[in-house]
Specification:
By secondary structure, this protein is mostly helical. The protein has five helices and two strands, in the order H-H-H-H-E-E-H. A two-stranded antiparallel sheet has the order 1-2.
Amino acid sequence: MTREIVRQDVELLGMLPENSEAKKLLSKHIDATVRKIVEGEDQRTREYVGSCLAVGVLRVAVFLLAVCMARGGWWGAFRLFSSVSGRRWDGAGRRASTARCTWKAVEDS
């Protein structure tokens, strides 16, 4: 329960008549809810699954960064992810295309 719900319950408690059984019941409910909220704020827990997942992702990121730097710095990162697409590359690092038409090829014909 949130503090907003407790606030609404307190407002409702003020509207009930003094000798009402519902007022006693709601008062006990509000006390129990406030106790749960306060105790919940004092407890701190760790989520081990999320922590292990974050460490694993960090390891993969460091590995990929090392691979990219070994392939030529930040430009190596571009080439690493570009190579995943399955395109062919020539020795100069440009895309090799079978349907490539250069100006030199047009002039020679």
